[in-house]
Design a protein that fits this description.
Two copies of one chain form a homodimer. By secondary structure, chain A is of the alpha/beta class. Chain A has two domains: about 110 residues, Tetrapyrrole methylase, N-terminal domain (Cobalt-precorrin-4 Transmethylase, domain 1, 3-Layer(aba) Sandwich); about 130 residues, Methyltransferase, Cobalt-precorrin-4 Transmethylase, Domain 2. Helices cover about 30% and strands about 20% of the residues of chain A. The first copy, chain A, has nine helices and ten strands. In chain A, the strands form two sheets. A five-stranded parallel beta sheet of chain A has the order 3-2-4-1-5, with helices on both faces. A five-stranded mixed beta sheet of chain A has the order 6-7-10-8-9, with helices on both faces. The radius of gyration of chain A is 19 Å and the shape is elongated. The C terminus of chain A is likely disordered. Strand 6 of chain A pairs antiparallel with strand 6 of chain B, so a sheet runs across the interface. Chains A, B: One of its GO terms (molecular function) is uroporphyrin-III C-methyltransferase activity. Chains A, B: It is an enzyme of class 2 (transferase). Chains A, B: Keywords: Methyltransferase, Porphyrin biosynthesis, S-adenosyl-L-methionine, Transferase. Chains A, B: This is uroporphyrinogen-III C-methyltransferase.
């Protein structure tokens, strides 16, 4: 039996101080840190005694295969080391945590998970809005625009929920998804794109659905970004007019 | 002009070490802390120089009216104080942040927001699963079972998204919502109830939809709890069998 283990640890969005106190404590005693592309590389400073390996898997780019990452975690844990696998946002949403946890269990490796802030919450913060203003909606739906089988999500079914939609990994399909959601929800429905949510280089645009893709392209926004759609985003107009718009960052 | 301000600050779910590093820093220099019922009262220890006021608003109980809380924030901020309004989970989901931000802007008070971990992520952690295992679903929908106008959420529309459903504030309607979702998704669909997600007294049950309410009642589970429903929850069965099931806590 090995005394090593693997912790799936959430980096949160952007700034290092969006990690939890628990995440900082776990990193401080990590032996090996596997760092995702979407996680802030400054996180390595919180793990001074760890060997830090970059294992980015950003869509479309040259990247480390999933199976190799899983083998790496198992190998180090079997040497008795504490491996910390750092993932952007919260580790339990859109990060293949399900597959990694299954692989680790199959290998008999002890696992732990440390939660974090998912990027869509930081995107709402950038706009100064609630994701679920109860005058506008009953909740929020987090979806990825990239499905496992390369199909599109069922935008009309998502629109029918009357929840705010928070779309991850959607920038390469921004025009098509704005058109599909405009058909389902109406072209005047408000939307927003927030790039680098929660980071020092955060930028955003707010526009109705029939203008959102053009506005985002004109502003030069690209991945990684969160796309928010729904009546609750209308509150952001007031938000952009408030004089203290930059305070959330400085708090 | 006042130099005071109000920060809406996310307490996260349960344990104090699930707050972010930024939240801890902001609390350390708070003058006044307004503490929600759903936030861990130990948070007050992070704000040693602040006057701490409990302003619980738990459903059905005697509680502080929303308008009074908003007046309190404005009054202290106008005295030049830094008011920190602490909310359970993430402040930008299901916490009336939208109304509070609007009231503060109307009053000309500077505002900031500090994000946090929402309870459903801690609930997934308790079960050792991803909320969005890509073999099972394309995302996750967070809804409250208590709508502003006292209607039920449209369970069939939510079921049609094929996302994992994470239901907040649903325990008083558990039997009815399990029946409605069982009709829409099939009675064998897996579900779970996690009480006190992320806290030291966390407890959970996993069962198919036609047995979930009975199982939760038999286990004595009540509010506050997260109800999770969808094929992705099936992964939790393996989770409950893993020998390291308690490690996530001790990480």
């Amino acid at each position: 039996m090995s005394s090593g283990k693997v912790t799936l640890l959430s980096a949160g969005p952007g700034d290092v101080d969006l990690l939890t106190l628990r995440a900082a404590r776990v990193l401080a005693c990590a032996d090996v840190v596997l760092l995702d592309d979407l996680a802030n590389p400054e996180i390595a400073t919180l793990a001074p005694s760890a060997r830090v390996l970059r294992v980015g898997k950003r869509g479309g780019c040259r990247s480390t295969p999933q199976a190799f990452i899983e083998r790496l975690m198992v190998r180090y844990a079997r040497r008795g080391l504490h491996v910390v696998r750092v993932k952007g946002g919260d580790a339990l949403m859109f990060g293949r945590a399900g597959e990694e946890l299954a692989a680790l269990r199959d290998a008999g490796i002890a696992t732990a998970i440390v939660n974090g802030v998912s990027s869509a919450f930081a995107a709402a913060n950038a706009l100064g809005i609630s994701l679920t203003h109860r005058a506008h909606c009953q909740g929020v739906t987090f979806v990825t625009a990239h499905l496992q089988d390369h199909r599109e999500p069922d935008w009309s079914a998502l629109a029918a929920t009357r929840t705010t939609l928070a779309i991850y990994m959607g920038m390469s399909r921004l025009d098509a998804l704005c058109a599909a959601l405009g058909d389902a929800l109406g072209p005047h429905t408000p939307g927003a794109v927030v790039q680098h949510a929660g980071g020092a280089n955060e930028r955003s645009v707010v526009a109705r659905l029939d203008r959102l893709a053009d506005a985002a392209h004109a502003a030069g926004l690209g991945s990684p970004a969160i796309i928010l759609v729904g009546p609750a985003i209308a509150e952001a107009r007031n938000a952009s007019a408030r004089p203290e718009a930059t305070l959330a960052r400085a708090a």
